[in-house]
Amino acid sequence: MLNNLKQQPADALLALIKLHNADPREDKIDLGVGVYRTDTGATPVFESVKAAEKLLLDTQDSKAYLGPEGDMGFVHALMPYVFGAANPTMDGRIDGMQAPGGTGAVRLAVALAKKAGVTRILMGTPSWPNHAQIAADVGVEIKGFNHATKAGVADMDALREAIAGAQATDAIMLHGCCHNPTGIDYTKAEWDEIAGLIKAKGILPILDLAYQGLGQGMEEDAYGIRRVLAEVPEALIAYSCDKNFGYYRDRVGALYVLAQNADSVNIVLSNGATLARAAWSMPPDHGGAVVRLILSDEGLTKSWLNELDVMRARMNEVRAKLGGAGVQGSVDFAPFGTQNGLFSIVPLTGDQVLAMREKHGVYMAGSGRINVAGLTMGNIDKFIAAVADVTA
Ligand code: LMR
Question: What is the annotated signal peptide range for this record (predicted)?
């Protein structure tokens, strides 16, 4: 029976981790998978996380099961940051459940949407490749529309056209901030328009917020999703703490539901619990418990927010330097200076991406996506020179 299975290629993005590790060149540069790095190339555990982990070690008195919804203290502690401190539940219309990382949250959102009758998801492309993989696995069609224009801004005409042509059984997937892979986010005015368009069409928004705090700031990065939620009767929100708490491998995320009233929220979440039980039973506890501890202690919260500020400032510094490089070879680096978050796309062909790796030891996704946090003041000139070389 198992002989029927065909060999599958490794996930192209995750495969880069191993390829990079196996490269003996000392000046190699890893711009692959999206993890934050310091100016020395390290991805350290947050100090606030270390402190809360110690606290957890000392105070946790049981590891007995919690249930498919995970740690609801964690789920609720995040809500003021995501939905606004003034009314984080939107009068009882929002609640959530813990999920294993952003992927688990997106998976739950797509599966719930399908269970509710969604047959197709409108999505700006390119997008995070796992969005399409998850949709295919769950059995929901993706209808792509162009996310960004050649001028490096959101392609609002394509988005308007996609929403105008939507069917009643469509959902729309939007990146809340720090668009992955382009770094091209909607402006506030564009979000205002998008919220109105979605409301008028009556389609279900699925909002993926995986990088809050890594773009313009915690509040600023929530603008878009809050604007959409203020307009629509219902929505699904997939949230990841893997980046803004540096919890990557420990998988910390949450799925939130906005519905018309608290009773409807509970019904949707009961379906979420059923799906979770069949998939992973319950999410891993550790990271969620630590985030809960951080957010329930003023000192730890302050220290975490300071750490996020430092990360954002460093990425802005890298982006400013990239943007200042102007045109090198055939690539104009100027737009990199104003894009948001960890990612940007260098317009390279597949062969040029390969040459970046083989000739220069620069590892980046096949799409030309780079993780700008992999650049440091020590390697950025080499990177820019390599791009100039392969595109000359
Ligand atoms: C990325 O896009 O690099 C991250 O979201 C990590 C992942 O799981 O793909």
Answer: none
